[in-house]
Q: What sequence folds into this?
């Protein structure tokens, strides 16, 4: 699309201002209505019976005793969920309904401990839980497999008979290959080749709000869903597919969301609650416990990666090969395009072969998590680059600068790059006082410090957005978008719309519509929503300003083209247009009905032009060599953010991504017992960093406007989680002289590695 | 879904008889920071809950004429922290109690609950063991006293007889030149459970260790009193050799398991590391005392 109304960045009043967030007062006073806060008259409670086995064939399910328990109103099993046969893929976005129907309710097999088997709705949560225990399931327990390395062995238990790889039954359910040049010739040309294998454990997104919904299936067959998600239209579409109810009969109303980070781009409860409500004739509420969230909702995959990179003596990269196995969980669907497409994207490497394998195993199915898969690829690639730079005696940042992709280069994942802003992020770190400051490597006996850097890439995305802009009768502005706000989209849109109208920020309200009140809008994810909705909000606002000019034209009896809009008022564009006192938004709104009716519009668009995001990070760590504890002392993150519509939110995105990366690198992991049961299904033993574990993270926002966006916006939410894993591993190497290739770098692992030669 | 009976007696006699009457179905509620969590997780389903926080003796902090302290078993960590003299006499015990849970949990959590929960990883227990604390117990057959280390029997199990309730901890008077300390290893900086915990209590005279006690947590089914470590320290000036010997004694005393919080090798090694670090803090305090 054309660049519209490219703003004068310096002269902006609201764009770039740290305005008060629209959701702030409700959140700090506890008034914000999250999914679990909804109650309805006559409402009953749904509970899920989950598999006690990591892998079992389901021979039969007998629900008769549960149905007879007093207070039980409905029981559902997979028979109540639409079956998508295995031989034909039905896609909704990137989700295959064959896997989603089986994830929501196990069909042939229980594929992980915690896999839903049946669900009960009863007059209380306790009765529903009690009834679940009365459901008799005849399981044929099967050998299970959790880790990638075990799952790809020739003698591994096979999860799905229909999955074949190289002509044999296998747990490798899919592959993705990207290549350029001639990889073998490239390595022949190299003066130095480094090849390393890395592994990591699955990590959870760690949102505070568990999945929850209330569903009302009314007597006329119309369904209303209140739930917390990253996309009410996704909730509607997926529920429709899994229940067979047409989308026009489903209204999905988004609650305030208590964190998603990608995980709430799929659903677990809604179709089950719909069928419980349909069967019982009552509204049904379902709320997951934290334990259920940990056992059965999607984490990011674990990984097993081998990266081999060849370079000339001067540091020029000539060949790169990546092999990435990702742990999908019980059903296929690893985010292969993350590591396969992102790992080498920031670099101009003539010969690349990047291959991903989607490996199923008996653990919960993965869901999106911030830059899905990309941190795993960057962990391997950026550590190998660090090693090459060290071996060649080059500064790791200089080497990255030397090899940065450039405008006009063809990206391995397809498009030709426009202006590439990677080098700017590297340079920002290279010149930052953090990178240039001396480091006290041995501040105390038993303590060693090190510094590391790494970079990251994320595609970013555009896609469908709808935005309504309506002028209230008293001359203020109500904006409705179709996106749940997980990263500050309301605050950002308010800034844009206030700027364009030239009115006080507080006169603009931004709301999130439901599927019945706003046009189709795609998920909040992929760092797309502020990019897309600011673009569409701009078009909507400009249309409304056009309407306002037409009203003024009518009143003054001159051409609309002879009118300009400035500071919230219509004015004659010049002396030739005539002399009229300005007409303010309030005055035009007051006269709206006399002059043609209500003022407002909705614009719907499939947006394009989301340029990729680049980030480069620098971190100092301190290692207690007797306890194996790694602490992060200082962290600086440079990123091209395009235009920070609301800088506080952009900083928050960068800081949040880094903190999640720190947890991934140092302390978070899924631990399974011998029976394939998750052993740490809670925040006590699933160790996300707490405030005192992390330093203040310093974001460097490089505002290099995206030329394809009216305000210059670039997605900012994903890129910051890509570099930390490698940056921290490189810092630990710098401190200890030992490379860690396995995450998390937990204290027992560190101590064990320190004892090795 | 059976109903739960909740009792909040005002005297120990009432509490003991109610607890005895409830037989195996009764549970004592102090701060509830373990019990409520266990109930929510479905690990325990008590028929009767006996809340002991209304019993004066169990929530009192008393100073004995000889300079010791008697701490009610249900005294919350936050309350103990505000006592003007306890933390000066027993900084190690106080810091251990104050490590139980988060700031919010400190408003409820007590040393009595921490001991009776019988987790090998309870933070207050190694410090109490090092302090040489004794517990007063009341049961259907009257009162008795036990050293703290004699109370846990194994993970989740105690040596208390049916109907017996831990009433208070008695900490002895402090000779001049005494200091104690507690350190734990956790992967995070807070909101975590000890992978290894170590309490050390020293009395130093003219630079020589006259008395020492060492308690170790999370390295065996119960919290350990490590007498060999204490022996290695007594008579020394805390030279490297003595500290090495005490650390080795700690490692040798470990009988840990591999679990989600740590490995056998890790715990065994770290027990010795913590002994040295804890002893250094206790010694500083003793020299300053």
A:
């Amino acid at each position: 699309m054309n660049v519209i109304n490219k703003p004068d960045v310096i002269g902006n009043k609201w764009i770039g201002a740290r305005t008060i967030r629209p959701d702030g007062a409700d959140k700090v006073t506890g008034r914000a209505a999250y999914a679990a806060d909804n109650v309805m008259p006559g409402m009953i409670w749904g509970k899920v019976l989950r598999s006690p086995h990591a892998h079992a064939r389901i021979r039969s399910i007998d629900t008769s005793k549960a149905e007879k328990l007093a207070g039980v109103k409905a029981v559902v099993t997979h028979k109540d969920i639409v079956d998508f046969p295995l031989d034909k893929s039905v896609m909704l976005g990137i989700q295959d309904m064959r896997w989603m129907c089986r994830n929501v309710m196990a069909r042939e097999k229980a594929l992980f401990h915690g896999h839903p088997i049946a669900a009960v709705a009863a007059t209380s949560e306790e009765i529903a839980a009690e009834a679940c225990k009365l459901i008799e399931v005849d399981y044929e327990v099967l050998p299970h497999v959790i880790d990638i390395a075990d799952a790809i062995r020739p003698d591994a238990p096979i999860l799905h008979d229909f999955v074949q790889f190289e002509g044999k039954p296998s747990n490798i359910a899919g592959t993705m290959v990207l290549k350029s040049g001639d990889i073998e010739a490239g390595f022949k040309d190299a003066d130095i080749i480094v090849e390393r294998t890395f592994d990591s454990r699955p990590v959870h997104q760690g949102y505070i709000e568990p999945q929850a919904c209330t569903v009302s299936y009314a007597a006329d067959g119309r369904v209303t869903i209140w739930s917390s998600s990253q996309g009410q239209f996704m909730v509607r579409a997926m529920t429709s597919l899994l229940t067979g109810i047409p989308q026009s009969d489903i209204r999905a109303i988004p609650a305030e969301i208590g964190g998603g980070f990608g995980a709430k781009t799929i659903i677990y409860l809604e179709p089950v609650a719909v069928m419980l409500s349909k069967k019982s004739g009552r509204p049904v509420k379902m709320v997951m416990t934290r334990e259920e969230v940990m056992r059965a909702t999607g984490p990011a995959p674990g990984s097993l990666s081998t990266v081999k990179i060849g370079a000339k003596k001067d540091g020029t990269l000539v060949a790169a090969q990546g092999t990435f196995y990702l742990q999908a969980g019980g059903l296929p669907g690893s985010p292969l395009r993350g590591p396969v497409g992102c790992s080498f994207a920031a670099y101009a490497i003539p010969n690349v072969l990047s291959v991903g394998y989607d490996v199923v195993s008996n653990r919960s199915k993965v869901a999106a998590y911030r830059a899905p898969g990309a941190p795993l690829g960057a962990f391997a690639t950026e550590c190998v680059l660090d090693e090459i730079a060290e071996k060649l005696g080059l500064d790791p940042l200089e080497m990255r600068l030397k090899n940065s992709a450039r405008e006009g280069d063809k990206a391995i994942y397809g498009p030709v790059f426009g202006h590439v802003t990677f080098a700017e992020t590297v340079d920002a770190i290279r010149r930052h006082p953090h990178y240039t400051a001396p480091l006290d490597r041995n501040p105390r006996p038993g303590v060693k410090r090190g510094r590391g850097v790494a970079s990251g890439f994320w595609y970013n995305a555009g896609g469908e957005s709808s935005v309504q802009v309506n002028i209230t009768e008293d001359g203020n502005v109500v904006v409705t978008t179709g996106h749940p706000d997980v990263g500050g989209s309301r605050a950002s849109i308010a800034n844009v719309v206030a700027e364009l109208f030239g009115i006080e920020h507080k006169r603009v309200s931004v709301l999130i519509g439901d599927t019945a009140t706003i046009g189709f809008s795609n998920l909040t994810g992929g760092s797309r929503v502020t990019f897309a909705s600011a673009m569409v909000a701009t078009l909507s606002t400009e249309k409304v300003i056009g309407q306002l000019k037409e009203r003024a034209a009518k009143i003054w009896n001159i051409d609309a083209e002879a009118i300009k809009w400035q500071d919230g008022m219509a004015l004659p564009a010049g002396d030739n247009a005539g002399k009229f006192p300005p007409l303010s938004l309030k005055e035009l709104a007051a006269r709206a009905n006399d002059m043609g009716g209500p003022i407002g519009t909705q614009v719907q668009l499939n947006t394009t032009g989301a340029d990729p995001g680049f980030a480069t990070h620098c971190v100092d760590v301190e290692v207690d060599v007797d306890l194996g504890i790694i602490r992060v002392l200082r962290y600086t993150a440079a990123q091209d953010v395009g235009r920070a519509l609301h800088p506080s939110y952009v900083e928050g995105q960068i800081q949040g991504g880094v903190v999640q990366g720190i947890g991934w690198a140092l302390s978070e992991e899924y631990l399974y017992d011998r029976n394939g049961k998750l052993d740490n299904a809670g925040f006590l033993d699933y160790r996300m960093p707490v405030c005192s574990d992390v330093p203040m993270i310093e974001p460097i926002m490089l505002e290099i406007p995206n030329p394809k966006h009216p305000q210059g916006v670039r997605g900012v939410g994903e890129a910051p989680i890509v570099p930390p894993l490698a940056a921290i591993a490189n810092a630990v190497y710098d401190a200890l002289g030992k490379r860690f290739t396995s995450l998390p770098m937990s204290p027992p692992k560190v101590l064990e590695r320190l004892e090795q030669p | 879904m059976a109903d739960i009976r909740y009792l909040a007696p005002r005297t120990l006699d009432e509490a003991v008889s109610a607890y005895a009457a409830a037989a195996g179905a009764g549970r004592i509620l102090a701060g509830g920071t373990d019990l409520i969590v266990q109930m929510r997780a479905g690990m325990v389903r008590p028929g009767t809950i006996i809340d002991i926080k209304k019993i004066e003796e169990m929530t009192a902090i008393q100073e004995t004429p000889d300079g010791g302290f008697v701490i009610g078993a249900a005294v919350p960590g936050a309350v103990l922290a505000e006592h003007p003299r306890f933390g000066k006499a027993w900084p190690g015990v106080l810091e251990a109690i104050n490590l139980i849970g988060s700031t919010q949990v400190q408003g409820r959590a007590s040393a009595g609950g921490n001991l009776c929960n019988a987790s090998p990883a309870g933070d207050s227990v190694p410090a109490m063991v090092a302090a040489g604390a004794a517990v007063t117990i009341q049961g259907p057959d009257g009162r008795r006293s036990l050293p703290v280390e004699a109370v846990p029997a194994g993970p989740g199990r105690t040596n208390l007889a049916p109907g017996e309730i831990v009433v208070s901890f008695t900490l002895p008077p402090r000779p001049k030149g005494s200091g104690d300390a507690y350190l734990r290893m956790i992967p995070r900086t807070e909101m975590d459970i000890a992978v290894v915990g170590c309490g050390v209590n020293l009395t130093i005279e003219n630079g020589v260790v006259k008395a020492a006690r060492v308690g170790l947590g999370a390295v065996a089914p119960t919290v350990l009193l490590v007498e060999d470590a204490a022996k290695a320290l007594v008579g020394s000036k805390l030279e490297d050799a003595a500290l090495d010997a005490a650390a080795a004694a700690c490692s040798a005393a470990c009988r840990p398991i591999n679990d989600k919080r740590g490995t056998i090798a890790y715990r065994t090694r770290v027990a010795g590391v913590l002994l040295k670090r804890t002893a250094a803090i206790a010694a500083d305090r003793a020299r300053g005392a």
Summary: Residues 1-8 of chain A have pLDDT under 50 and may be disordered. The radius of gyration of chain A is 27 Å. The interface with chain B takes residues 126-127, 130, 291, 626-629, 631, 666-667, 671, 679-680, 684-685, 687, 689-690, 692-693, 746-748, 751-752 of chain A (CB under 8 Å).
